[in-house]
Amino acid sequence: MSVPENKPRWDNTSWYVGKRVYLWLIKYIIKTINYFVGSDEPGTAACPNAFFHCTNAGHKPKEIPTSWVNDGICDCCDTSDEYNSSSDCVNNCIELGRRAREEAIRKKELLAKGYNLRVELGKQGKQKKEEYKAYLEKLRKEYEETQKVKEEKEEMKKEAEEKEKVALEKYKVEEDDKKHQQEELDVLRHRQEEKVNAENAFNTLDKNEDGILTVDELQQCLKFDQNRDGVVSKDEAMLFLQMKEEMEYEEFISTGWMIMKPIYMMDITSAPETPVVHSSSEEVARKEDHHIQEDNQHEEPVEGDSSENEIYHPPINEDDLDKEEFDDENPHPQVQEDEQKPPEKQEPKYDEETQKIIDAANEAREEFSKAEKEYKRISDEIGNTEQVLEVDFGPNEEFFTLKGQCFEITDREYTYSLCPFDRTSQRPKDDGSETNLGRWGRWVGPEENKYSKMKYEGGVTCWNGPARSVIVNLQCGVQNILTSASEPSRCEYLFEFTTPAMCFTPLSQMDETEHVHTEL
Amino acid sequence: MKMLLLLSVLTTLSLVVGVDRGNFKSCDQSGFCRRNRNMQPGESPYYLLMNNLKVSPTKIESRLANAKTGVLYTLEISALMDGMLRMKINEATPIRQRFEATEALNGEPKETSLKLVSQNSEGMTIEFGKNKAIIHANPFRLDVYSGDQHVISANTRGLMKFEHYRTKEQPKPENQEQEGPANQVEEEKPAAEVEDMDGAWEEHFKSHADSKPFGPSSVGMDFSFVGFKHVYGIPEHADAFSLKQTKGSTDPYRLYNLDVFQFEVNNPMALYGSVPFMVAHSDIKTVGLLWLNAAETWIDIEPATQQSVVSSIVDFVKGSTQLPQTDTHWFSESGIIDVFFLPGPGPKDVMKQNAILSGTTPLPPYFSIAYHQCRWNYNDQEDVRNVDANFDEHDIPYDVIWLDIEHTDGKKYFTWDNHKFPNPEEMINNVTAKGRKMVTIIDPHIKRDSGYHIHSEATSKGYYVKNKDGHDYDGWCWPGSSGYLDFVNPEVRDWWASKFGLDHYKGSTLQLFTWNDMNEPSVFNGPEVTMHKDAKHYGSWEHRDLHNMYGILMTMSTYKGHLQRSNGHLRSFLLSRAFFVGSQRYGAVWTGDNTADWDHLRITVPMLLSMSISGITFCGADVGGFFMNPDAELLVRWYQAGAFQPFFRAHSHLETKRREPWLFDAETKQLIRAAIQKRYSLLPYWYTLFMENEQNGMPPMRPLWMEFPSDQTTFDMDDEYMIGSSLLVHPVMESKATNVEVYFPGENQVWYDVDNYQKFNGLESSTIPVTMSKIPVFQRGGTIIAKRERMRRSSSLSHDDPYTLIVALDKTGQFANGNLYIDDGHTFQYKQGEYIYQGFSFKKDTLTNHALQGSEKFETKAWLEKVIIIGISTEPKTVQVESHDFGKKNLLFTYKSSTQLLIIRKPAVNIEAEWSIKLLF
């Protein structure tokens, strides 16, 4: 709709005001200084995004939606927005301005401090990154080395085992014989046991002790109620009598028992299973807890012992690294056991020569296993290090130093934990079982301020809901502090975190930006 | 408000969506339902004792007898105001008093004169108002006439049943008598009847026993609506507006206030509220029937069978046998037969008659018809502050923010969680500083915690409902073990009311209002998730007798509390989930825990229409759906529909994702904002409708046939409705819709699309293309609507803002009129005449403003900013405003010939002044 030109805006409002006209005129003059996008129908659909500009002399100027003008609420400290309303607004721009300036100075100082800290963090981060890169370099070299060692050891192992195989060949025949004998014995023993079982069963079932099992007798034994309807039907009973009405002792022992055994031996006391009905909220809670625990089993241990299990330890000095290597003495016990099984079962006594060969082979195997282990460790370490190097730690690596640290905040019920670039979690204050709220995902801030938000995702799935996740809002501050944690939506958490790494504005640029970003 | 967590454990272990029907009784599982439903039409054993007749100026009284048992009953037939008739049947000498639900009525209905026209041994004819009734003595039967037309017959099919109270020792003699009109079919199955009577003395449902100490007590009767194919009403059911046939296909419609977890649409199951009121409508007549009974009630509906058609009457009226007829059969577990016949003859007459009986919604405070923001839960003060600030930040108006159960200290109502809400008053004041309000939830279950003042007082004063053994009833609800206040006791109601006093309810202010949820009552571990029927109330009533009234008695008490806390100065706002006949007198009602899917969006229309025509006019459904997460499209469409429904509140379950508008993409946010803004722009219209509703019972949301009674195309509509008499709404309720098929009712009517002023003719359908921003709304030609086009943060900030008048001319292009009601928006001063009720009319090229119900006591600064005239075929040369204050003045205007639209700018006259705007050609 077109707007007639040369018409005073807002003129329509005052025709009945009478004595307020003078006041209004003054205000109108002030108002015309305002730029005023919109039409003669403020706040209507005709101009949905129009703003009113308050000069707020003495304080910062402000733009408010035109729908806030003359609504009885003092939104501008210079009262210009309520030029024609019954509310008694007081101009408090001077006072507000003074306070705002004081606050701004205070904030500026903090921001400046934060900025300096960020510069320092950037240095540290870059250094760390370099260290990582160097470490990766070193690892890659080691990788080649260990790969070579592994291959050598493998070759040696093969050779030793070849010899061993030949040496053991003659013992093998003997051994096989023994094994065969043993097997036969086992079979005999088993048959004997079965016969006793069959006899016992027959005697139990043969109620009238006439040496013949009948359908009637079987129907008395509830074990045969296969469909669990509470009665043993004739069909169900006959099934065990080769579909006949009766069966004699001999037939039972030879064939009948084999059919009946799996059913008969089953523990009938636990039989009629009823589905468990959960009927109270506690059970839900328990269910949930259980869920959490299950989940935690797949988790790495957290916090306290995390330093030992950290994927990467900053290569501060070589001692640590060495220590780590030696710490790692027995990483895959099962694999080792399996491999060593045949030689360990040294039942047959070997002659001295053979024994030597065997010992040599054992040694070669052990050597190889060590080499392989070291190879694997290095490979893993390379993977982990590469992963860390792939993370975006900010334009100047200023977020790098946050990695490896954890921050906590405790509210009335829970302690929340944020380990940047790693994980987030929550544990109840009273008992310690921890819930994973999500692992490091990605930066999710808006394009122009990418580093203002982190997302952690894939936490423990909520009962009847989504997997838990956390958004972390980052703000500039002189310290790394987790300032708040909340759950605005079910299982969607929100953390607030301050860090100097977010202080992007240097003092020199602050004055320029201050007017635009009046609120920080 | 919310699901039953406990039940949800059972039902959602595998994420089941949908009701667990096993938790609720079918007719087969209810003794009295079987006993009544299985009756076969035939000759009724009940007959009128003509020699006992007592005739007084307003009523006739007599006795009915059951020929099989010899039991005697009192019969009272009285004439009421506005041509209504009441029929009351009770036991003549009961061994136990029978409950009467009279507190649901808006006072004892006034009787008017009744004339006994003729009388003989076979019956009598009476006249009342313009109507008459014929009473047949043996078997007893009542034929009600609206004017000269036979409209309702009672007991024509002989399904009347009145199980008298008896002692248990007595072997069940009534069984043979009542079920057995000498009818061979009946005699062939006595075994089944014996089983039926077993259920009369003790019944089990799932793990619950109903001790039934007083035995069988049900009452039932059949009513035939003669000449009617369509019947409506009897809320609350999630089913079509035009009620379906139940006999032979489904269970009867059930009325038993229940907390149904994840209710399903399109079935006759009971829900949270009950209004046993039915409207029958045809192209020539509209009548109503109120079955005033607060016990569990079932209603069977079927089109008349050959045998049941009241043929002699048909002959009399039309000389044809083609007259349609709908047979209904009503039965309740206890209480009396107390039936009100509302003779119409038109839909508006029935609304008015129902208003006389059960009252109307008192004019709601202005804010309460605006937009409400709710969620289970806004977690703490900070959360409230943020949500409030975000509405400003995103420039979306809203009026009320709600706090669900988590705001309390351990679900102890009237308390606050001190950690989350340490300064409730400060929080409320921050919100109300911008003209907004807050609501807290207050439920009827009271935590059994000796440190809780409400509980300790209730216990020591004996204010709780008792179990069958006389101990305080102990049920499981949100706080765990809970007592249930006995609102049947007037003393308890007064005591409860006092708890809303600002001195009692710490942290509350006069800007804090109330939400009464779970008042069916919901008892998590009770039979059908409610109270045991053998629980005992004040006056030694059984819960069975009055179950459906528990909710209304609670809201009655809360309402009183609201009035008292301001010494009767300020209006109340409260929202209830349970409701009954008359609940409208205490506030708003919503449809309970719906689900975020398209079916549930669609069902809002028939559900709210059913409630609206039954008196529950301030009603709404949770926008967005309570359970599950709506996608952006569904949410937008729901906002668009909700903006055009009486009570407009978004609400969501604890376990859903947050869904405040700004959490969606920019377009979605903008669409939601636009929908809310449309609501705000029409608040003056809604407010006027609510005032008129208080006056005459006409629901703001109404079926098309209420405005166009003879337009048969409208009788089955579930997707289109009217707001007042001027706006037609057809919300988009299909996913990915690109158009909707809109039917425009009314002969010689024209309709205008409110967005683009496109014109449509009555009695025609049109395919209206829709984009995501389109809400198909049409203004009827011949009407004038006052709007406010400026957006404020909240409705109360708009009271001085100017109006825009939308004048939609009728088919002739000559005429339009409309009303506007204005008052202070929040006090009862309007009852002292402090209001403006203006009529606008356009005729002879002149728009004028005149007082309808004049009052000099209220003044407004609001003025007329713009006039839009639609359907004007030629451009005027001059537009001139003339007022008493400043004489004549020419106005700026623009004319668009393509849409025949005239926009007149800034008449700038006060809205209440006398003025005229003249078009000069």
UniProtKB/TrEMBL annotation, chain A:
Keywords attached to this entry: Calcium, Coiled coil, Disulfide bond, Endoplasmic reticulum, Signal
Source organism per UniProt: Limulus polyphemus
Alphabetical list of InterPro entries matching this protein: EF-hand-dom_pair, EF_Hand_1_Ca_BS, EF_hand_dom, Gtb1-like, LDL_receptor-like_sf, LDrepeatLR_classA_rpt, Man6P_isomerase_rcpt-bd_dom_sf, MRH_dom
Keyword field contains ATP-binding: no
Ranges annotated as spanning the membrane: none
Segments forming domain EF-hand: 193-228
Protein name: Glucosidase 2 subunit beta
PROSITE patterns noted in UniProt: EF_HAND_1, EF_HAND_2, MRH
Coiled coil: 129-191, 354-388
Record region (Disordered): 274-352
Domain of life the protein comes from: Eukaryota
Composition-biased stretches (Basic and acidic residues): 280-301, 338-352
Start and end residues of each MRH domain: 404-505
Comp. bias (Acidic residues): 317-328
Gene responsible for this protein: LOC106457458
Pfam families: EF-hand_5, PRKCSH-like, PRKCSH_1
Automatic annotation (TrEMBL), chain B:
Organism: Limulus polyphemus
Biochemical pathway: Glycan metabolism; N-glycan metabolism
UniProt keyword annotations, A-Z: Endoplasmic reticulum, Glycoprotein, Glycosidase, Hydrolase, Signal
Superkingdom classification of source: Eukaryota
Start and end residues of each stretch annotated as Disordered: 168-196
Similarity annotation: Belongs to the glycosyl hydrolase 31 family.
UniProt domain Glycoside hydrolase family 31 TIM barrel: residue ranges: 361-689
Main location: endoplasmic reticulum
The protein's name in its UniProt record: Glucosidase II subunit alpha
Subcellular location: Endoplasmic reticulum
Domain Glycoside hydrolase family 31 N-terminal: residue ranges: 74-300
Domain spans labelled Glycosyl hydrolase family 31 C-terminal: 697-785
Matching InterPro entries: Gal_mutarotase_sf_dom, GH, Glyco_hydro_31_C, Glyco_hydro_31_N_dom, Glyco_hydro_31_TIM, Glyco_hydro_b
CDD domains assigned to the protein according to its UniProt record, in alphabetical order: GH31_GANC_GANAB_alpha, GH31_N
Signal peptide: 1-18
